[in-house]
What does this fold into?
Amino acid sequence: MNQPGDIYKTIAAPCSGVFKDKGSKFLAYAFPVNTVEEVKQQVQRLKKKYFDARHHCYAYRIGVRGEQWRANDDGEPSSTAGKPILGQLLSRELTNVLIVVVRYFGGIQLGVPGLINAYRSAASDALAHAQVVEKTAMVELSLRFPYAAMNEVMKLLKEEQAEILSQQFDADCVITVAVPRSRALSVKRYEMEVEIND
It folds into this structure.
């Protein structure tokens, strides 16, 4: 059974939405991401694709609890774009998600309340088209143990819901596994016990 601290909500695939107000068009794109590097790549890709747009504002959350996050106004008045976008991720409790809103200016100023509403609505529309999924936060570990302990190790890995990624069997065996984050410590602790008793 996974611990509640291992489970997080994210989106299954990229999706998009749109919002229009007084001639301005706000194109919103949401992406599942796992690293800040992925965020940078997606933002750069959209800046290149929509090079003629006035603004490319975005927000993201990364990590099981959204520990890494950022809100970027990209030249819009402070807190009128990035924060409303981030607010949509927070209100839906989503993480490992990036939302970029591309704005084409329509010639009429929207004012601060208008901008906040536009960026929030565009982000909300993109997420309304998203398939939200629950995922388990996994940690990758390598276990080294003597061949004689094989049955015991396999039993432990099954109990700890570990997914075997690779294995190598010699006099010393090495298995690389992915385990739910909350179980990583007990798996590593077991490896230390095997080494001490070896």
Summary: The mean pLDDT is 90. The chain is about 35% helix and 35% strand.
